[in-house]
Please model this.
Amino acid sequence: MKKLLLASAATLATTAAFADGHSPAKLGIILGYTGPIESLTGHMAAGAELAIAEVNEAGGVAGGIMLEGVRGDSTCVDAAAATAVAERQITSDGIVGIIGGDCSGVTGAILSNVAIPNGMPMISPSATSPALSTVEDNDLFFRTAPSDAREGQVMTEILLERGFDSVALTYTNNDYGKGLADAFQSSFEEAGGEVTISTAHEDGKADYSAEVGALSAAGGDILVVAGYLDQGGLGIIRSSLDSGAFEQFVLPGGMIGASIFEALGTDLEGSFGQIAGSDSDGAAILAEMATEAGFDGTSAYTPESYDAAALFALAMQAAGSTDPAEYVGSILDVANAPGEKILPGELAKGLQILADGGEIDYDGATSVELIGGGESAGRYRELEVVDGKDTTVGYR
Model:
């Protein structure tokens, strides 16, 4: 039943896309439907498909062209597989934009190997590696989640405010984990904190006792786990709890989602962390819309996915074209001031303003503001585990 609910937005979008008999403009939704964050990506895709359905209900873009989402599995970790999916979507499906990738390594691979050679715009809802801020992207890459350079600063602030000045640090051995670990360590040490050890772990292992032993031997008041909630990060925490090495953990964005709280419950009591998130009016509106559509609009990176799809549609409308070369230059225009604020559920209004020659400032579900070449300025939700549940304690 759950899978049927998550697919409902996709079904609605596809039905609308073909209702007038014309071929739709297709957007690839390339996320890790298998792999270390698979518990998140069904909701993320449903968020993107909800925006697509909303656009189609409003009459489509650029003179009535409907949109269609095409899912493709990035696996989150296999760059070759992700690249092959993106190539197939361009050559066989004829997509005109990519919502994705999700994890930073596969996102960079798709960008370099597929998107740039084909002039294909990408808007990632969850690839957060700082390295993506400086990559040569031919002005094709954007993201609705903020860089881990910012998360490293936020995590430092939270730890020091809570009285932790000594931490052990482990990270998943890929672009995301290393980028976040480096950003955090630099920020924490600059602020006077001590990182007793910073060491990588591999995903997919059955036993993490050796890694946890090294972390424990190095000491530290708390363990920062920059990993994935459905893979090695979960294994590290379980092994730490089993051995008594650590009892309290810091959970960055890749570790936050319903599955980890379901798996560990009160064993995580008192642990805390942060993830991209907003307490804006738009976030609350999307949460209600998602509930009606049968999925969780508050799940990690789901609001960012809705916003990514909305930005594509609004940019196409502003440009009067679904041709990537024509609309890509309008993405920053519709995302930022000046113009009328547009929230989730108001895409029809935004499309009409643009059709009438006006300007919009898409605020969306995440208070969208794209800075630099397409970076999200971003906000973070601070959370703590209370009674085994993810409890919001503030925003930064």
User: Anything to note?
Assistant: The domain at 148-277+380-395 is CATH 3.40.50.2300 (Rossmann fold).
